[in-house]
Structures are given as C-alpha cells and as structure tokens.
Task: structure prediction
Amino acid sequence: MATEGQQHPIKIYFLIWLLLFVLSFFSYLVDFYHLEGNLRWFLIVVFMLLKAGFIVAIFMHMKWERFALIFGILTPPLALVVLMFLMAIESDYAWSTRVVYMGEDPAPKPESPSHYKKSEEEKGH
Amino acid sequence: MTDTTLSTQESIFTSTARDWSSDMTTFKGVPWGKAMMWIFLLSDTFIFTCFLVGYMVMRMTVTEAWPVASEVFALTVWGVSVPLLLIAIMTFILITSSGTMAMAVNMGYQRRKWAVFWLMLATALLGASFVGMQCYEWSKLIIDEGIRPWGYAPDHDLGAPQFGSIFFMVTGFHGLHVSVGVIYLITVAIRVVRGKYDHTNFEIVEITGLYWHFVDLVWVFIFAFFYLW
Amino acid sequence: MATVEVPYQETVPLHHPKTWIGKYIFSQDHKIIAVQYGITAMAVGLVALILSEFMRLQIAFPEAGFMAFFTADHYYQAITMHGMIMVIYLLTAFLLGAFGNFCVPLMCGARDMVFPFVNMLSYWVYLLSVIILMISYFVPGGPTGAGWTLYPPQTITQGTPGVDWGIATMLISLAVFIVAFTMGGLNYITTILQARTRGLTLMRMPLTVWGIFIATFLGLIAFPALFVSAVMMLLDKFLKTSFFMPAIVSLGSKLEYSGGQPLLFQHLFWFFGHPEVYIVALPAFGVISDLISVHARKNIFGYRMMVWAIVAIGALSLIVWAHHMYVAGMHPSFGFFFATTTLIIAVPTALKVYNWILTLWRANIRITVPMLFALAFVLTFIVGGITGLFLGNVIIDIPLSDTYFVVAHFHMVMGVSPILAIFGGIYHWYPKLTGRMLNDTIGRIHFYFTFIGTYAIYFPMHYLGFIGVPRRYYETGISEFYPVAAHNLNKFITIAALIVGVSQILFIFNLVHSYFKGKKAPANPWGANSLEWCTPETPPRHGNWEDRLPTVHRWAYDFGVPGEEKDHIPQTVPRRKAS
Result:
C-alpha cells in the first residue's frame, strides 16, 4: 500500500537467486554438450525467458505490483515483437537477394556450432 | 475525493479499469520516482532491443561465415580450453550482485540503513568487478584473437567483420550501463547512511534496485544471443 | 483498509528560488522552462525558415546572379538542416517542450512537474543539442547534405557535403536531443499519470493533455530507434564498422566496408520516423480540439471517441513505418502489410476530423485569431491527410515517390498543420502566460498571410508532383519532361514563400510588442473551462495554486449547458445536486 513499499520474505529472494544459477548452469550445459539445431535454440530461448521472467517478476517486484502498472509496462514492447518479426523476414529476404544477385558463391548460411560437426568427423565418427 | 480502497478481492480487470479511471494517481501507491524509473526502463528496453534487432539483421544477412562464439570466447585454463569460462564467471557475478541488491531493497524497507549501505556497496563492488572482467575479455579479444571493431587483424580472419562490431557495441553499451549503475549505487548508498532519505520510506533503494536488475536482465539476453547462439 | 488519497504535491513544500538567475535563467518553474523552450525552438526555426527561402530562390531563379554563391552543396546542406530542424528541433521541441511544459502541470492542477530539476536539465541539454547542430555550420566542410533522412551509404560516402564533420555534429546533436527529450518526457508522463489533482480522472483531462501524453509516450519508445541508428552510423563513420555499409566501389577504389545492410538503417530510422510524425501531430490535434471547443462555445463532439482515437493512432503509428520505404527494395510483401495498417490508421484520424467538424456544426462560433488558426488547421490537415491516402497505397506511391507531390503532402500534413496549431496555441495561451493580450489586428493580418500564403506554396506543388518533377533537385533545365509551366509555377511558389516568410516578422513583432504594450488580459479572456484559466493569479505564480490544489468536478467542455446561467462552467465548479 501507499506507504508500505515492497516487502517480502527473504526466503523467496534466495530461492530465485538459486534458480537463476541453476538456469544459467543449464544454458551453459546446452553449449557444453554441443546440442545443435532447433533443440539448442529452443532450450536457450526457454532458459533465457525463464531467467528474464524471474528477474522481472521477483527481483523487480512486478509480480506484486498492481495490474495497472504491469499492463502499462508490458504492452508497449509488443511493438518490438512486430519489429523483430518483420526484420527477421526482411533479413531473410535480403540474404536471399544477395545470394541470387551478387553472383558470388556465398558461404553456406552459418549454422551455429558448425565446427562441432567438422571436429566430430575428424574424430572418425 | 476518491476513496481508494486497495482491495485484492476484485478481479484484475476491474481493479485495472478502476486504477486507470481514478483521479490523482494511476499507479496507486507507486512513488513518483519509481513510476519514472519504470517508464525510463521501458524506454531503455527499446534501445537495447533495437541494438539486438540490429544484431539479428547483421547475423542473418551476412554472406560470410559467422565466427563460432564458444571457440572465440573460450578461456584456456592449465592447458585445457574451457568454452565460455569467463562469461560463466561474469554471469555468476552479475546474478550475485542482483541478489545482494534485492536484499538491500528488503533491508531498506526495514529501515536498516547500515545493512542497506553494505549490501549496496557489495553490489557496486560486484558490478565493478564485472566491468573489470569485461575489460579483460575485451583486451583478450583484441590482442589475442585479433578481433577489431571494424573486422579482424591481418591473418586472424574469422569471417563476417560485423561480429566484432556488433559485439563490442552491444557489450560496450551494456558495460556503460553497469558503470553508470555502479556510480549510482555508491551515490545512493552514501546518501542513505547520511540520512538524506530518513523522511521517506527508502523507496530510493528500490528505484536503484530496479535499474540494477534491469542491467542484469539485459545481460541475460546478451548471454543467450551473443555467447550461446 | 481505506485511505483518503491526498495529492502528494500538497504535502511537500516547493523550493522557491531567491535570486534573479534562479528565477529566470536556471529556473525550475515549468512556465519559465516552457518559454525558454519556445524561444529557442523559434530561433532555430527561423534559421530553418531562412534556409528554405534560399532553397526556393535557387529552385525558381537558378540563373540569377544573386544566387551565384549558392552551390549544389549549399542546397543539399540547406535541405538537410531545414528538414531536421523543422521536424525535431522546432516542432517536437515546441509542441512537447513548450506546450507540454506549460500545459501539463497547469491543466493537471499540479504545482510543477514531478522533478523540476530534471525538467530544467532537459532544457539545457536541448539547448546544447541545438548548439551542437549550429556548430556544424562552422566545422570544415559545413553541415551534412545527406537529406534529413540521412540514408546510408550515401551519407558517409565521399561526395556528400559535410561527410567529414557535418555528419558527426548532426548525429551527436540528435543523440543529445534524445537525452534531453527523455528527461523532459519522463517528467510529462509521470506528472500526467501520478500528479493530477483531486477529481481529475484521465477521462476529464483536456484533449491537449491527452495529445501531449500519448505523443510523449510515443517519443519515449520511438526515439531509442533513432538513438541506436545514430550510434551505429557514428561507428560506421569513425570506426569503419559495416553495420549499414555494404561493399562499395567509390571513386574507383573499393572502400573498406563489406556486408552491411543499408535497409536496416531505413527500418530503424522510420521505426522512429513514423511515430515522430504523430509525436508532432497528436499534440496539435489536442490543442486544436481545445481551441475549437472553446471558441465555438460548444462541447467537443465525441470526447471519448477523440481520446480513444488518439490512443489508437498512437498504437497504430508504431506498425506503419515502412510505408516510407515502398521503393527502397525491401521485402515485396511488406507493401501489403504496411499499406493495410496505413489505411487503418486513417480511420481514427478521419474520426477526429469529423468530430471537429461536428463540433463546429451549429456552434456559436467566435472568429477570434486562435479560432482562425484552428479552422485553417482543419482545412490544411484534410488536404494533407487525403494526399496521405494516395501515398499510403503502394501502387499510387511508386510513381509519385520522390516527386513534389510527396513534398506537398508532408508539408501540408506535418509542416503547415502543426505550425498553425502552434500559432493558434500561442494566440490562445499568451494572455495566461504573460498577462497581456496579443494585438488582434496584427494577428489577423498574420493569419491571412500565413494561411493563404502556405496554400499558395504547397497547393501548386501537387501539380508539379503529378507531372513528375522530382524533389531535392538543385537545378533542372527546360526539357520536354520539365515544361516551362513548371518553371513558372516554381517562380510563383517562391514568391509566395518569400511573402509568407517575411510576414512572420509581424508575428514576432506582435509577441514582443504586446509583451510590453499589450492590453491587460483578464483571468479568462476566452471563457474557457480548463484548469489553467482558474489560477488565482494571471500570469500564474511559481507553484500555480493556493495552498490547496484545485478540485475538479467536471470535464473541461461544459459550454452552453442548457439550464445554466453562464455559457461556460469551469472544471472547478461543483456539480449541482440533482433536485
């Protein structure tokens, strides 16, 4: 309420603190175990969004704010989602025009951990 | 003259409609500074997202190969190349600093000024060490790996020249935020023990905390997109 | 737990400065800051006006001896500076900096902005950005001549004027302006949301405040895109990064750039640039709504619809940006998406126009000077808006792109219209700000010169556009493509532009003269209802109100209420108990 501010049991901060470490560790493992392709990206994004959500909801106390504030802060970034999607489509198109019109033989579209494949082939798998 | 009963019984839609259609304040019980900080962070979100969208466009449009992050950012410890070790430590430090900050906010509302001071100072120190490690990371990239903002040093060619540009720009901008945050934290911590905020409810600590957590939040995205992707 | 909320500003004492410098130079009073913003914006706007006169003279009389000093480089620099100054340093700064600062606390019944110190800082940083911009006329090579859109790669490639220094001062100045705007904008938003007085709900706010509110919010989330593109371009220029710069062969040698994406800049720029149009237009809409209602002595037609139209325009303006880029070579199917959203945004805009006209219908219109400007605004806005529908369609835009039709369109809709709103607003609020009335006769002469003059300038440009005369050309000879008639029309436009330009002296004279010699203004000369006319003193003192902030009982549009004695009821008058 107006004069009390955000006061919550300390336990929950420790819990979230721990959770953030665990999630960071998981996303580190994703890289460590050389997961590839969609699974890799899916896991990275999920861990990222979970971490972001915990920080905003608990550390920044948004969970306990009134919905009027939550609504006011969380709706405008929708515009960014539109920007992101359209720019993804646009970049894909730009890349394809470069490939088609520039007459060069472009490198294959870089997949993230391409070197792993190479190194595993070298090992003789 | 409105009777503002902050009841939690009504549905969030009713309460939101009531808050937005009430007089005097829209965000009930939110101090001015906190409202302002939230809106500023919203604006800052747009800055960082535009940077990240720029990164996405660069990465999707270049026809040259993109360097592999976990190789570039690997750290050799006792002859073993451990991928992303430094980044893992930096992430650890930043999350820890977020934790101490959250504790400082909690202590603030209990009016324990010295606890607030030491916790905020610890946060600031962790932040400063983060910036220090970032400097180390940068110098390592520039000197050892030959990565330059405009591309690569001779015979270090890793592919697309945008890799270094966008990396230095975004992490630099984030590092700038951390540095500003450190100064902000120290200033507020000193003012707290000096009793500048005794007449208030120490919401300044929470406002500072909002900024600091936001910096941590941005790091979450940078970590995922620049180091893991 | 039930608590009775008290406006926070009643509980904290206001810091009153003692010295003259504290009162009038480094003042934290929102009214003084508004005047500072206004004077700076007008001064820099005069520079832009003079630049435009030079451009017009060059277009109309390219052979004339008196234009010999004006080279092509000068022309492009003038175009760039004119555009940038007008859009950002004059219109944005005036509508939000001056009107925003003056109207928001007064109309919300607040003592001042929530953080007066930050507000003061906002002005000084704005002044700094203007100074940096003006410095570009004194650096080697002069200001940048890339056009106000600053499209790469041409902006930072040799051959463009000001490629060495001018572009740096321009981009730094923009970044500094964004800092200033953010400081001011956060203040306006927080004041509107958190520092209203008793009884003032959002739906009782005058539309001016609504316009400023949404426009500021748009600014806070749109300027970041410009900030980002400015930073990236600075890096491209000085660190030779390749964000926006593809591999280029320039003057026979390959530049050290490779693989950049120029379209990214255009997207980021217009992600800022289109909301910017509404950052300028929305406050103007608000001001005009209030002027029309007050001077037509009738409540605004469809108040709620007007509010929601402002909100809808604000939301939609964030997803229409690429209609500026139909011919840029973006993804082919984007045209469909952006043409659709563009046409959708025309709906709430048209609603507003209908509502203004319906407010005027059978109203008791008083043709005062502010009302003249308001009526002129509606007319100009209709013309500019309808040509916008032409350009919003991909098929019609492609032949009209980069012609004078576009120039006519955006000057009508976001050049002349907001300027008319600014004039109207100044004539309306000057009595409250200074305690003196502006001279009515000079005001009317100024109005007719400005209104008819701007029509004479921009209306013929549509025809020039139809016959395909391209914009931004320094000089065009007579050819089959470019007939003599076009030259004659250009001469006509230039003469009209000169007359309009010179007639602004009347306005400045009026402002200065009336400040010293004008008639004393009564507290509420127009019989308006909103809170700024209810201040205990005219001009309002620092802190605006008595010890207790005013209490609002009704909306700001109670004009000619049936059964009431007076023709207007201020917001502070309690409602009568139902008998």
Q: What stands out?
A: Residues 24-228 of chain B form a domain with the Four Helix Bundle (Hemerythrin (Met), subunit A) fold (CATH 1.20.120.80). Helices of chain B lie at 12-20, 32-61, 69-72, 85-109, 113-144, 162-193, 203-228.
